[in-house]
Amino acid sequence: MGNTDVRKPVQKRSIETKEKILKAGFELICEKGYYNTNTAEIAKVANVSTGIVYQYFKDKHDILVESLQKYGDSIFYPMLKVSAKDLYDANLDKILRNMIKKFIKNHKLSQYAHKEIMAMVHSDEDVAEIYHHSEIQMTDNLSKIFTDIGIPEQDLREKAHITIHLIDDICHEVVYHRHSSMNYDVMIDLTIKTIINLLN
Amino acid sequence: MGNTDVRKPVQKRSIETKEKILKAGFELICEKGYYNTNTAEIAKVANVSTGIVYQYFKDKHDILVESLQKYGDSIFYPMLKVSAKDLYDANLDKILRNMIKKFIKNHKLSQYAHKEIMAMVHSDEDVAEIYHHSEIQMTDNLSKIFTDIGIPEQDLREKAHITIHLIDDICHEVVYHRHSSMNYDVMIDLTIKTIINLLN
Amino acid sequence: MGNTDVRKPVQKRSIETKEKILKAGFELICEKGYYNTNTAEIAKVANVSTGIVYQYFKDKHDILVESLQKYGDSIFYPMLKVSAKDLYDANLDKILRNMIKKFIKNHKLSQYAHKEIMAMVHSDEDVAEIYHHSEIQMTDNLSKIFTDIGIPEQDLREKAHITIHLIDDICHEVVYHRHSSMNYDVMIDLTIKTIINLLN
Amino acid sequence: MGNTDVRKPVQKRSIETKEKILKAGFELICEKGYYNTNTAEIAKVANVSTGIVYQYFKDKHDILVESLQKYGDSIFYPMLKVSAKDLYDANLDKILRNMIKKFIKNHKLSQYAHKEIMAMVHSDEDVAEIYHHSEIQMTDNLSKIFTDIGIPEQDLREKAHITIHLIDDICHEVVYHRHSSMNYDVMIDLTIKTIINLLN
DNA sequence: TATGAATGAGTCTTCATTCAT
DNA sequence: AATGAATGAAGACTCATTCAT
In terms of C-beta density within 10 A (0-12 exposed, 13-18 middle, 19 or more buried), how is residue C63 classed? Predict the structure, then answer.
């Protein structure tokens, strides 16, 4: 009888509360990491009481999982959020440069998140599943983009996958900017050239 | 308070004890992650008492740092431990294939470690320093290898850096083998081809 | 890390809990000393969980400081809690005798406290500040009492200070009653006579 | 058979070792307090190993007790170490001033000790016994001095006792010098005057 | 006698989670 | 639906004491 399970909010107010928690949780975890974020803080940032958190989420881990399901893509592959407009001129070099630019611009949320979440992929089945689902989808997205602009079909998904990693790497390199001895403009050019070569 | 500095072991027994703790700590952290490993467990696996840990290490974090300094390379860049023999035939394709093979063979330790440590790079200055030091060194190593086998000098360090990431990515892809829809043999071939192209 | 500041209780229940902890902490510290009292015990005596203690106090030391701020005067200068009634007859001898009597009657709390706290004055800046603030206030109080009953103003604060110590000493002497060879009635008389002489 | 008790050193080297521990322990405890001093530190300052400490002392507490027995007087009543020379001119005012001067000069060791030890008097029977034995002896000493310089015998021990406290108080006042609003020269003069009056 | 490495019980503190209101 | 006070298990770290050498 007693419905002590996690509540599935239907009322508008409920939905908003859950949303606030999810957002606060995601932001804090991204910023400081899962283990350095506590539920009291999440509640505080979400502007709700600590108790209410457990009416919408089974436990802390659940907040992580649900927030990843909701916002994960934005940290996993921010550079792949290419709009139709970006693809309009169908110039591969431009498209790739756009992706990199976009990533760098939006990297705020990803500061800590990307790597930390990746780490959890190895210890947490739920996180792993979300991540790989996201990865496949992104690969498919990119494959489709490539098809659209006339890249030959052969091994396309494998190529897309490598491309994603190449972009991801150069982006992180630039964003975190750790190597003073490295010329980033050269690296970006090299990366783009490499991808274009890979695709042809 | 107190003058209980961290002990610098000189006697043989001391050195062994510190070694045991370091090894146990590193293995557990790699396997389960830093936050999921507690000092009592490290002591237990090392077969020592909890107290002794703090005679050799300032705190738990210190175990992480020292173990990374000691064993870090093996998780950061296992594929770059190329021997002179590997370079003997001077065939780039073979060298790269060897690296990948070596990585895959030795990935045991890296299970959890690589990603988690990378995550900490963003929250932990000490870890960041060790990692980036390692990264630079690996880039230099690879640059030297490339020079040795006659790759032109231009932008060599940038190219080496991209190469490392390409190898790293494909290795993880294969080791964790997540994507049933992906043909790994093709990916390896593509990666090697891409690198060779990049270098010429 | 985290934003778990110390809570400032506003609700009635909160205030009571904090009060209970403060009281338990103070009593235990007085009875057994700061270092021989542990937080688990404080919580137990206060009839709360160990965790809640740290919602109201930053740490164990904070319990000491706050309890001193609240109850300190009662152990530092119990004899100076003279009421207006005590001063009514304006007889110095009677006033002093009253102080001593009052101290002896109320010495329960001070069993361990007075000396231990005094000891901490030398190692603990916070305790020192509270104590000296209390000391000054007591000196001022007594000066005022003296002025009220017509003692000449010259060097009055210095005289009050010496007076306080003389009373304090005789009180402790009597309360702890260590010296079988000493006649306490004589000592009290001598002390009072000495003070009266000092003031004129 | 096995003589596992605490060793009574007879050989010269043994005696010296024990001495070193005693001295180091006493100094550290005086300086930082009993609870803030650990045995490892005592051993280090004494320049011996941690293990050897337990061949000469039953436990940490034993170090405290024995060191108090040996050096206690110097912190309990440093001002009473009057030499025959000091008494030569038989001027009470001068004698008392000398005591105060001597105390202030030698207060180094007493920094922390006096109060802390006093605190322990209330929780530690052994310390209590030592302290009170010392107190009685000092009272007797001073009584004898007073007799020697012709102070009338009546209630002499009680007077000596009060005198000791008066000197003790003024000395601490001056040494720790906390009250900017207090004129210490005046206080010293008042104290001496008070004592002289008390004795006549 | 002496060393100093090792022990492990004890202490403070944190935090995910529950509960009374 | 919501609050926030309360819980208590768990973890990092300390230190008096013992033990192998």
Answer: buried
Q: pLDDT (tens digit, 9 = 90+) per residue, D50-101?
A: 999 999 999 999 999 999 999 888 777 777 776 667 767 668 898 899 888 8
Q: In this structure, are residues C80 and C48 in contact, taking their beta carbons and an 8 Å threshold? A: no
- B90 plus B178 within the same structural domain: yes
| pTM of the predicted model as reported, rounded to 2 decimal places | 0.87
Mutation site, D61, D76, D120, D123, interface C, largest C CB count within 10 A: D123
Query: Which of the four pLDDT bands, split at 50, 70 and 90, describes residue B10?
Result: low
CATH number at residue D46: 1.10.10.60
* Domain boundary residue, one of C70, C98, C114: C70
Contact (CB<8Å) B3/D44: yes
Q: C110 with C172, same domain?
A: yes
Q: Is C53 exposed, middle or buried (0-12, 13-18, 19+ CB in 10 A)?
A: buried
Spatial CB neighbours of A77, under 8 Å, sequence gap ≥ 6: A134, A138, A164, A168
In chain A, the percentage of residues whose pLDDT exceeds 90 is: 42
- Please check whether residue D6 lies inside any domain of the structure: no
Number of structural domains in chain D: 2
Alpha helices in A49-180 (DSSP H): 50-56, 60-76, 84-88, 92-105, 110-121, 125-148, 156-176
* Residue A82 structural domain: 77-199
**Inside any domain, residue C7:** no
Q: Which residue of A has its CA nearest to C55?
A: A40
Tokens of D178: 């906390």
